[in-house]
Amino acid sequence: MIPSVMPTYARFDVVFERGEGPWLYAADGRRFLDFAAGIAVCALGHCHPHLVAALKAQAEKLWHCSNLYRIAGQERVSARLAAKTFADTMFFGNSGAEANECAIKIARRYQFDNGRPERYRIVVMSTAFHGRTLATVAAGDQAKGKHGFGPETEGFDRVAFGDLDAAKEAVGPETAAILLEPVQGEGGMRAADFAYLRALRALADENDILLMFDEVQCGMGRTGKLFAHEWSGVTPDVMSIAKGLGGGFPVGACLATERAAKAMTPGSHGSTFGGNPLAMAAADAVLDVIEDPAFLPRVNQVAEILRAALAERVVRFPHLFEEVRGLGLMAGLKCRVTNTDLVNRLFEEGLLSVSAGDNTLRFVPPLIIEKEHVEAAMAILDRVCETWKDTQ
């Protein structure tokens, strides 16, 4: 008999009842060091005092009124993000998939508004992940999300991630945009070469198509800058964000330049829940913390400690690991053994991690972790690795 909760997840047998900082506490008394962070969502850890206070204060005033009316929080958060980014305008939704859907619509509407309705196709990348709606599944390259849901949504041309020549060849008279993650998470913790991103920017400019970055996972300080593309000096025309933006509260946003989004007029897009007062209170509070001048430098310091520690494990356990991947506190270990087996063993020992594509072990801890948390995580990883032969 099917359970009342639709069985679309292969869940761990644990129920968490509270969290504090980088720690989660289960109903059965177990404690876990959380280096998964809700899959890179809980950027400030669990129950961050500033975020809790902001949500409590807003909950006592107004939860929802719909987008039929002005929402002060949207105006405040959008102004803050615009001041820190390339963007002139943005749309608020509830998730990364919704932000990417908005990006896809912007690309098509941009070309339509400029008299080129035949330009609707988007160049996308191998091993990409952009969400689980029909359009974002098609834009992504994850077979498990496509099986049984055909026919696949049309309009996407896939090329190898990092292959500039392939991207150039794919751009044609029907191309509206290029979409990619500056750092692929689900696809194996692969970071795009900065020169590659700069070349894609030039390619987009030469062909009057939009360059769109999916920073749902790699944005909001995850790589040590507010957004990952900043490391390359490249700015996109459109960018999708979510995950860390709400620190655990569902909120996503699609940011765009005025040039890209000027055709997004009333009625062209919408969301019932998107950007409601509670969501905006959460995003505003997250920005308060991340924009502290000391915050991102400290993220970079801890990221260096974590990455050095992971590199040491590659040397110590060459039969288990091949290389360190990712950028900042978006770190991965390419495995020689099945990554999900490692995730399960780490879970048994009290460390939460996430599997990723290309047999990669993913660590995306809260951005508030300290050196002591890295050391505690590595102690657990060592314990698992040192006893690995006994489990095979």
Draw up the topology in text.
Elements: E1 16-20, E2 23-26, E3 31-34, H1 37-40, H2 49-59, H3 72-84, E4 89-93, H4 96-113, E5 121-125, H5 134-139, E6 156-159, H6 164-170, E7 175-180, E8 183-184, E9 190-191, H7 194-207, E10 210-214, E11 238-241, E12 252-256, H8 258-261, H9 277-290, H10 295-316, E13 321-327, E14 330-335, H11 339-348, E15 351-352, E16 354-356, E17 360-363, H12 371-386
Parallel strand pairs: 3-15, 5-6, 5-7, 7-10, 10-11
Antiparallel strand pairs: 1-2, 2-3, 4-12, 8-9, 11-12, 13-14, 14-17, 16-17
Helix pairs in contact: 2-9, 3-9, 10-12
Structural overview:
- The structure is a single chain.
- With 392 residues, the chain is of the alpha/beta class.
- The longest helix is centred in the last third of the chain and has 22 residues, at 295-316.
- Among the domains are: 61-290, Type I PLP-dependent aspartate aminotransferase-like (Major domain) (Aspartate Aminotransferase, domain 2, 3-Layer(aba) Sandwich); 294-326.
- It has twelve helices and 17 strands.
- Helix 2 runs antiparallel to helix 9 (277-290).
- Strands 4-12-11-10-7-5-6 form a seven-stranded mixed beta sheet, with helices on both faces.
